[in-house]
Amino acid sequence: MVAIIDYDAGNIKSVEKAMHYLGADALVTRDRREILNADKVILPGVGAFGDAMEKIRSYGLESVIHEVVEKGTPFLGICLGLQLMFDRSEEAPGIKGLSLLRGEILKIPKGEYTKIPHMGWNSLELKNNGRLFEGIDDGAYVYFVHSYYLKAAEGSIVTAETYYNTRIHASVEKDNVFACQFHPEKSSAVGLKMLENFLKL
Of 116, 156, 180, 187, whose Cβ has the fewest other Cβ atoms within 10 Å? Predict the structure, then answer.
């Protein structure tokens, strides 16, 4: 069973729909026991870093997420879910993230691509043989919607990068923890293949 953590963030239904399309038994929940008993756990989300961390803490989900990771359950953060997994974000100074991985979330700088948020399809440069990208070609296109980006502290955890005014760490992996800034559930066949790889872990 796949538990999709519900903390009132957007985009949960599309992740659930993708899981069902792939034949997975998926449950949208914030129930501690259901999350801890799941075979896989997904932290999706669209929205603001500070508001999201406030909701996660008010629902008592922070300790549950840490328990899931510590017991070795495959855990996937998507979009805002990726950002919450790190230490801090420029979007919400003084608000501590989940600190599952080391790094910070920075505002996309102005540059040649003038539209922020970064919204649309970008190609990925694959790194470090990420397990989510098995069977996916370097240069594959995926769908992004974000104004802030990840700068991971450890280059060894970065499994995909993209460029939008700056070099963006688009996907990371460490042990049983995975995350992507883009939306695999909205990234056509490439994204579904990634989610299928996650389900096979």
Answer: 156
Catalytic residue among 91, 118, 183, 196: 183
Residue 62 known to be catalytic: no
- The catalytic residue among 16, 91, 173, 185 is 185
Give the DSSP letter string of 143-182. Answer: EEEESEEEEES-GGGEEEEEESSSEEEEEEEETTEEEESS
Q: Is 79 known to be catalytic?
A: yes
Report whether 130 contacts 143 (CB < 8 A): no
185 catalytic residue (yes or no) = yes
Q: At what angle do helices 49-58 and 61-70 cross, to 10 degrees?
A: 90
Locate the domains of the chain by residue range. Answer: 2-200
Q: Tell me: the pLDDT tens digits for 76-126? A: 999 999 999 999 999 999 999 999 999 999 999 999 887 999 999 999 999
d(CA 78, CA 56): 15
Report how far residue 103's alpha carbon sits from residue 107's, in angstroms, rounded to the nearest whole number: 14
